[in-house]
Structures
1.
Amino acid sequence: MPDFDIAICGAGPVGLTLALLLVARGVAAERLVLIDAKTAEQAARDQRTIALSYGSRQILQAAAAWPVRATAIRQIHVSRRGYLGRSLIDAMDQQVEALGYVARYADILSPLNAALEQHAAGLTCLRPAKVTALNQNASGAHITLEDGRQITAAIAVQAEGGVFADQTPQLRHHDYEQSAVITHITTSIAPAGRAYERFTDQGPLALLPQDNGYALVWCARPERAAELLALDESHFLAALQTAFGDRVGQMLSCTQRLSFALGLNAQTSPPEGCCIGIGNAAQTLHPVAGQGLNLGLRDAFVLARFLSRSISAASLQDFFQARQTDRQTTIELTDQMARRFASNTAQTLFSSGLGLIDLCAPAQSWLARQMMFGTR
């Protein structure tokens, strides 16, 4: 008999949500193990900004991990700098409280960890513990940790994918030759629940309302991103003002700037045996439209449903088939937006058609609901 029924490698939002949903569906907490290379204290210091969809809020509620300290997005304004076309998606039109929420990574983890202590007291959590090998045979998965410990499980779930630059290439792999510059900015016009997705010649530029300002995700070619990182604060804000315009007033200040490479890395083949990847471990996406974590949380929600019925390799096959449409639709949508809108010709056509989206309610509703809930 294996040490555990299910081993979850990765105690980030996706792994924690899966564990909580499994327990909520009747899987014994004592038969679960969470493994993560970071301590809880290290993870709690992570101040990355995450966009949560309204559908992700529903999943976190099901995991008893809501409310999250977050800023609501009630409108999304999509445009291209210098062109007249624009589209405005409003939560009221979609009959939801908010289209999504902007939260720091640590603030998402906090209620998840609190729920784990309250509802899954018997669960084994190994951290810091780095997985160095994951093998499988007829009896299940065999996990080797850096300190030499050996763990066996009937099912192993890889829920920690890391960032694109550090990943092993999967079947579908593409380097967008872009980098994202991220920071938090304040402006002369206070945020009012509106997020902006603005396309530039080198890629999308997003401003997401957060606290007293905006979280910025500015995608550009690597050499341009390096230039933006090297600028002093005043010159960086001036460059941002030029690229974005004055819809939020004057750019006043920014926090420390960071940058990371962007790419698509997805495992599109069915699982073999008793191991499965979810979230970034299964598909790392371009940040346009902010779908990465949301897709991972939907993975966790569906996988918990299948594994609570049967902890078996057959359930992993059923899960893979059930997730195909949503995964493929989201991958294609973000991939095409990242590729096509990096060219002037495609962006010109896109800008001209933005206004038509507002005139076609079914098209706007489909796009909004895909971003909020995925393909159901």
Note: The CA atoms of residues 171 and 269 lie 8 Å apart.
2.
Amino acid sequence: MKYDKMILGNDFSVTMDCNVTQTNNNVIVVGTSGCGKSMSITETNLLYTEETSVVASFAKRARVEKYIRLFANRGYEVIDLNFANPLHSAMGYDPMDYITSYDDISFLARAIVSMDDRGKLGKVDPYWDQTAISLLSALIAHEVILKDKATMKDVIDLFHRLKITSLMEVVTTSLDADFDELEKRDFYSYVVTMWKTFKACPLRTALCVLSSLSAIIDTAFCGECINILKKKEKIDFEKISEKRVAVFITTSAVNPALNVFVNVFYSQMFKELFEVREKNAEVGIPIRIICDDFACGAKIYNFHEYISICREERISITVMLQSESQLQSIYGEYEAQTILNNADTYVYMGGNDVRTAEHIAKRAGKTIFEILYMPVGKEVIFRRGESGPILVDRYDLLNDKKYLSVFS
């Protein structure tokens, strides 16, 4: 099997063959806005990717179009998912396409509910989230059971039909008759159990859960995103594992609400890729996932677990951050530290965050002053197994001969 190389700085690159390096290929890149993360790390490594399937996100459409042409010329199957402008996306995505079991339903419901960050800020009772997951699971299962090809739009429409009609303490809803029919078929079924969990709530709690879930769904599946759901041609995650595929994801730098749907996509993509690899451990090619502006979106459900096991599935993840505090604000201290601990490569490109600088200074054996005032264009690389930090210049892509020959 052929492997690409991973370029981290001028005169510093390593093979992506983990059997040779004995390390994983996960990379954390930290640097302030404008320090060159996208150009010197993301673009450079895309330029030298020829043997690996790749999933890369950009907030700038021009970069996506630039590399779509490059990978198409290399014989890759190119998938263009435009979440920033869904109407013009060449490819569609519907999370309901990957529902094959009740476990899949539960996962999708949890992934969607976890998009709401109020829980980690202490503004939502965790019980509400669990009940919201049960309610959403019931609605998804309802559509899967009753329709041959249920879509997320069907689930959203069903949710919008749901009204609490009770004026007493017992919860009654506009969908009770629908679920009563399903209960007649099978009293102990999954869908009935999930629905009864929601119905068992006190009236005030049910109203709060319904309101909370409404906010999540309206954000995750806003009007623009519905266009992605309606596309006839949908992404097939299994292809990414089987042959050379380049998936380019356009996110929005000015409308972060659209990025909530992007993170639902990432949550499900990781789950699907890992399940495909579990079934066919020795089949397929390496997969490289580059998450540009990683902390600008919502939380990717179970991400801290995926990054900890991806090496054995020949999947690597590159995460771009402006500071470590960004990661902690979304994932919390434990999960953020788990993510950091499971990247055998860490590239620091400078910044003004004192807490991050303190961490880098301690690891590098330098003063915080030296780190905070590190010259522009320099970077510090830490790799597990190296005897110490590596100080190099960031990669000069604009003077790369291969880059000039391709894009001149």
Note: The first strand starts at residue 5 and ends at 9.
